[in-house]
Amino acid sequence: MMTVSHSLDERAVAYERMADALSYLGDTWQEWPDLATAAKSVGLSPSHFQREFTRWAGISPKQYQSALAHAAAGDLLREGASVLDATLETGLSGPGRLHDLFIAHEGLSPGEAKAGGKGADLVLGRAPTPFGEGAWLISPRGLVALGFIDENPPERTGFEHQGRTEENAFADLAGRYPGASIRRDDAEAEQMARRVFEAGEPLPVALYGTPFRRQIWRALLDIPMGTVSTYGALAKASGNPKAARAVGAAVGANPISWFIPCHRALAADGRLHNYHWGVARKRAMLTLERACAA
């Protein structure tokens, strides 16, 4: 069976701790906790935490804190604060991005897209991602769906966790395409994971769904990394300003998590809620993106 390199496997295993670390640093960055204190918050030694965080995020814990400070300073300046008031020592020399991938246009005819996968031959497999173990659904045209597996999710104070076992995650994805023929092949899923997360190759996608939903999914790609939008703004951008509720449903039905960034869409009140794969994962995605985009 083909396996991905240790770096991606390690990032998948580290996701739970790193989500907690991102939350802790996001809450305490103004106090600038030192490495030992931050490491203690997730039960690791300082050296282990430094290595694991940097390997997972592409930037060190200190760079992450500095990026949060840099972003906050930018917000203050945009709100009219003086440079003196907003100046913070960032120490950031160019953080690495978790990903910088090109999403190819889906290679489906309008009829195929509207058919919802009826008659399609799909592969379902398990392979690691930087946000934990992934459930990958693949067609010969490209990635059809990506979800996440959380076996035995830990108790985590302050998090809404919507963990799904492998069985439940697979059933979730397969249930969206009841007319398709689906077989399991972890090796093919792992091959795709390695290509897109490690080699940075273009990711072809096959978006099955109504024209309206596919329009909204494509609009999500226009939200810049490190920023967020609202369902109302997406509705206006799609030419349907009164369709915020329908847009919310379309965003919630997005099949390809992370790559089609539905995590960047928020309700009008700005709360992080109703993310299909867990609010903790959405928070990790957003905080990391903002830091890496700074």
From TrEMBL:
Coiled coil: none annotated. Its EC number is 2.1.1.63. GO terms for biological process: DNA repair; methylation. It is an enzyme of class 2 (transferase). InterPro entries: Homeodomain-like_sf (IPR009057), HTH_AraC (IPR018060), MethylDNA_cys_MeTrfase_DNA-bd (IPR014048), MethylDNA_cys_MeTrfase_DNAb (IPR036217), MGMT_N_sf (IPR036631), WH-like_DNA-bd_sf (IPR036388). Pfam families: DNA_binding_1, HTH_18. Residues 19-116 form the HTH araC/xylS-type domain. Signal peptide: none annotated. GO terms for molecular function: DNA-binding transcription factor activity; methylated-DNA-[protein]-cysteine S-methyltransferase activity; sequence-specific DNA binding. The keyword Methyltransferase applies. Keywords: DNA damage, DNA repair, Methyltransferase, Transcription, Transcription regulation, Transferase. It catalyses: a 6-O-methyl-2'-deoxyguanosine in DNA + L-cysteinyl-[protein] = S-methyl-L-cysteinyl-[protein] + a 2'-deoxyguanosine in DNA; a 4-O-methyl-thymidine in DNA + L-cysteinyl-[protein] = a thymidine in DNA + S-methyl-L-cysteinyl-[protein]. The keyword Transcription applies. SUPFAM superfamilies: Homeodomain-like, Methylated DNA-protein cysteine methyltransferase domain, Methylated DNA-protein cysteine methyltransferase, C-terminal domain. Belongs to the MGMT family. This is methylated-DNA--[protein]-cysteine S-methyltransferase.
